[in-house]
Fold this sequence. Notes:
six-stranded mixed β-sheet; about 35% strand; five-stranded antiparallel β-sheet; alpha+beta; 3 domains
Amino acid sequence: MLDISRNEQKFYNVELYKNDSIRKARNSDYIFSYPKYAIMLIQKKNDSFEDYFIETPQYYVQKSVDQQTWTIAADKKKIGNFTVQKATTNFGGRSWIAWFAPDLPFFYGPYKFHGLPGLILEIEDSRQNFIFSFKGNQNLKTETDTRSFLETLNQQKPVEVSEKQRQKLKLDYYSNPFKDFKDGMLVQNDQGEMIKVNTKELTEKQQKYLKQYNNPIEADRAVQYP
């Protein structure tokens, strides 16, 4: 979900917005459900970004400067009611194909993509691992309040980290993902059943999972798991 306002742009999972609406309806201070692969970004100005992420139990933010050099082609097509034009770039260790709408005078797009003379309505990498598509747009009278699930999360302010620190956090979690669990503890599995913890077995499964799905949008920032 791309949220464009006067002073900044935000990109986040629509599920976060929906879950925050549920939180407000329940008059609760906490969001109890998060998307499995949450993207939480704020573009402050120009090429400056704040990338928020969760590494249980802490909430973090990594600031960066990201830009793309675009090659605009003559190819055009229709997306909905908009005529869009093709552009390509290399970013994050991947090649990308974008389609932007010159009639929509916003220089933004999904994730960190920006800098084209029109709103990016569609973009995908050359291997089609990631595809962002336009589904619709809405003009709001007021700005969306994201303070409870973006700038903070469950009343927790993010800790700022560098790329080196982010990599270390991921590797530390990989090394011991269940450090707070003890063998024999009772926990609830995905089926709602109570089972006894076997930390060795759980660790091996989680490490296998982390390696199998180690495919971030920015491939050149992938963690090198042992």
